[in-house]
Amino acid sequence: xxxLINLNNYLFFNFKAYFLKxxxxxxxxxxxxxxxxxxxAEPVYRTRDEFIELLMEKIxxxxxxxxxxxxxxxxxxxxxxLSLKQQNAISEETIIKKIQYTG
Length: 103
What we know:
Layout: E1 4-7, E2 10-13, E3 28-29, E4 35-36, H1 48-102
């Protein structure tokens, strides 16, 4: 699949151009605060006010996703701490035995 068009032995890129306000509603905000747009989705005409509504909704959705991921990671901290302490106790015991054996 090529995005190049040959016209009189000149190569041109084939692309769609439309206003940002007309992006597909399937757009999503990434964690780096960029808009991710499905290039194959058809643009949807909307007013600038409607675009502001869509953009703010997508930003809100992205922030909620980030918050949920953060909440989950915060909830896992205590169990990870306990697991690390148990692993540390086991390895510490092994190290002490090796020191005593060689000494």
